[in-house]
């Protein structure tokens, strides 16, 4: 029989025990490393989610700057979501199988990023729609205000014209009452011949074409101020058309000549005063017609 040294056997057994202990420690380290890798990957995924969410919140804050209150509320909700997502990450870490490969983890991460991108796009579209609706509402209110201002302006202009017309009519009635003529021993009854005198006054101006205030005052035995008032009244009433120049002369302009001047201005667009004066001098016939005045 082969006999072995007890010391040798004891040494071999001790060596085997140490080897077994070393293998066990190595296996434990391997398992711990795998758990650490999974934990780190899941933490990175959670951090990536939080980072993407913060970027989305920053983008929403830039787009909807005037909705600070809503953004603050969304930030609070996002912070709550962040804490929830951390706990959710821990739950998913618990529910995940023992081993998660890199490809599987990459697919999960890509899927989550696509989901976050869709949510960000939907929220951005919602913000754009809200901003567009607010702009449309402001435009509508501004247009309504402008229309109301235009209506008020038209009403004020209408009242002003009516008031001017009323005053002109009152002045015209006063002029009719105060018009007296004494020409070559002819006494005129105001109540009976006012219309004829006005007609003669207008016809005299139309035939003379250019007449001074003093000439009219002497011809009809009126004061110069009364002549000026009478001319203004006739111009406002439409019985005469023309202008009073700076020399104190009235220039009669026919309706056809006035229309031609208006057409000239419309065709030329912007017209200087000199051009308008030159054209008016060429257009308006300054030759006086034979003037006679008869007393009825």
Defining traits:
5% strand; Arc Repressor Mutant, subunit A; 296 residues; 77% helix; 5 strands; 2 domains; 8 helices; 3-stranded antiparallel beta sheet; disordered C terminus; two-stranded antiparallel ribbon; mainly alpha
Structure explained in plain terms:
Residues 62-167 are annotated as: Disordered. It is a single-pass membrane protein. Keywords: Endoplasmic reticulum, Membrane, Transmembrane, Transmembrane helix, Ubl conjugation pathway. It is found in: Endoplasmic reticulum membrane. GO terms for molecular function: ubiquitin-like protein ligase binding. This protein is mainly alpha-helical and 296 residues long. The protein folds into 2 domains: 6-131, no CATH class; 179-283, Winged helix-like DNA-binding domain superfamily/Winged helix DNA-binding domain (Arc Repressor Mutant, subunit A). It has helices spanning 6-63, 68-95, 102-178, 190-208, 213-220, 224-237, 255-268, 273-283, and strands at residues 182-183, 186-187, 210-212, 242-244, 249-252. The strands form 2 sheets. A 3-stranded antiparallel sheet has the order 3-5-4. The protein has a two-stranded antiparallel ribbon with strand order 1-2. Strand 4 and strand 5 (249-252) form a beta hairpin. Helix 1 (6-63) runs antiparallel to helix 2 (68-95), helix 1 runs parallel beside helix 3 (102-178) and helix 7 (255-268) packs antiparallel against helix 8 (273-283). The chain is rod-shaped, with a radius of gyration of 52 Å. Residues 66-71, 76-80, 82-98, 180-191 and 290-296 have low confidence and may be disordered.
């Amino acid at each position: 029989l082969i006999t072995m040294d007890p010391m040798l056997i004891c040494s071999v057994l001790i060596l085997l025990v140490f080897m077994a202990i070393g293998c066990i420690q190595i296996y434990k380290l391997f398992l711990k490393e795998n758990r650490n890798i999974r934990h780190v990957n899941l933490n990175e995924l959670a951090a990536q989610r939080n980072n993407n969410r913060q970027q989305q919140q920053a983008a929403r804050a830039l787009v909807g700057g005037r909705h600070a209150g809503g953004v603050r509320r969304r930030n609070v909700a996002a912070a709550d979501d962040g804490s929830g997502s951390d706990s959710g990450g821990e739950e998913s870490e618990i529910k995940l199988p023992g081993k998660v490969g890199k490809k599987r983890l990459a697919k999960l991460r890509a899927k989550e990023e696509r989901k976050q991108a869709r949510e960000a796009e939907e929220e951005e579209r919602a913000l754009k729609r809200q901003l567009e609706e607010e702009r449309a509402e402001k435009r509508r209110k501004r247009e309504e205000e402008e229309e109301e201002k235009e209506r008020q302006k038209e009403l004020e202009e209408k009242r002003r014209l009516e008031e001017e017309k009323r005053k002109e009519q009152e002045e015209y009635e006063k002029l009719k009452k105060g018009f007296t003529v004494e020409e070559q021993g002819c006494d005129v009854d105001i109540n009976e011949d006012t219309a004829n005198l006005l007609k003669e006054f207008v016809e005299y101006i139309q035939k003379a074409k250019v007449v001074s205030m003093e000439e009219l005052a002497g011809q009809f035995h009126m004061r110069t101020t009364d002549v000026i008032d009478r001319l203004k009244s006739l111009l406002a009433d439409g019985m005469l058309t023309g202008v009073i120049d700076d020399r104190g002369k009235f220039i009669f302009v026919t309706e056809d000549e006035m229309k031609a001047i208006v057409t000239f201005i419309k065709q030329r667009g912007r017209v200087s005063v000199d051009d308008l004066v030159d054209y008016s001098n060429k257009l308006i016939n300054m030759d006086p017609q034979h003037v006679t005045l008869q007393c009825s």
